[in-house]
């Protein structure tokens, strides 16, 4: 079995979160975007790689905690984004989840800064990877 | 960048299809299950690994053609299944799609046989991996 495993090459697996930030009165303030510390630079959804031995949903919650210090609850899977050209470094497939939190993000790890953007203030022209496409899919999913 | 890539370990990425087979009159006959030729033995949804450089949806269509000789159209993503214990061989994450076809399956590749099972005749106790959970999620999604 080991030899079979070693013959396989597989894309890298990542997960990104569209974190909807709500007030205590359940009013939507916006979603979280980070400014990346490491290349590729630019604005992006918070996210990261899935570890071996970790469920994708666990990886998402870990990354949201590590990168923007938020405890999120997952609402739904938005989609799987797998275009080999979506990440210029290597083939990386991302499972994107819509999730929810109530606090303000605090940047750490890969994030130089992290802020809440209302849905009509998304800086689409500054987004890296395929995050413009992902956020447009999210807005469509929200009926916007 | 290369050194960063080499430090990463990542789960294997696979894709499985719930192929709904319809008559020309658009009547649902059932879904396709295979009997596996290789371990783990048992009944399973058709599926396989995603290659580097290939979109997950392309991998799905390729695998459905290779394993059960069907040209499928994708209806929707059902879910991402990533429990590290779902495959006893290694950590393997599967993106599962609901799809549609009109012909009869013909077994090849990893499949010893392939048949259409009506939705009330699924052999749940003979399914391998977490395909029992996946098919139950599918039935729920169909409102059954």
Describe the structure.
- The structure is a homodimer of 144-residue chains.
- In chain A, 21% of the residues lie in helices and 35% in strands.
- Chain A contains three helices and seven strands.
- In chain A, strands 1, 2, 3, 4, 5, 6 and 7 form a seven-stranded mixed sheet that branches.
- In chain A, β2 and β3 form a beta hairpin.
- The radius of gyration of chain A is 15 Å and the shape is globular.
- The mean pLDDT of chain A is 94.
SSE blueprint and pairings:
2 copies of one chain form a homodimer.
Chain A: H1 2-7, E1 12-22, E2 28-36, E3 43-44, E4 47-49, H2 56-68, E5 73-81, E6 92-101, E7 111-117, H3 131-141
Parallel strand pairs in A: 1-6
Antiparallel strand pairs in A: 1-2, 1-4, 2-3, 2-7, 5-6
Keywords (chains A, B): Hydrolase
Domain Nudix hydrolase (chains A, B): 11-141
Protein name (chains A, B): NUDIX hydrolase
């Amino acid at each position: 079995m080991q030899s079979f495993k070693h013959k396989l090459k597989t894309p890298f697996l990542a997960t990104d979160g569209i974190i909807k930030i709500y007030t205590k009165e359940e009013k939507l303030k916006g979603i979280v975007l980070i400014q990346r510390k490491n290349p590729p630079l630019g604005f992006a959804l918070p996210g990261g790689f899935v570890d071996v031995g970790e469920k994708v949903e666990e990886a998402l919650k870990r990354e949201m905690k590590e990168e923007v210090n938020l405890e999120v609850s997952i609402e739904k899977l938005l989609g799987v984004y797998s275009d080999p050209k979506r990440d210029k470094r290597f083939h990386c497939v991302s499972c994107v989840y819509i999730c929810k939190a109530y606090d303000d993000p605090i940047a750490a790890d890969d994030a130089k800064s992290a802020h809440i953007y209302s849905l009509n203030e998304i800086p689409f022209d500054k987004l890296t990877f395929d995050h413009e496409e992902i956020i447009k899919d999210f807005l469509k999913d929200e009926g916007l």
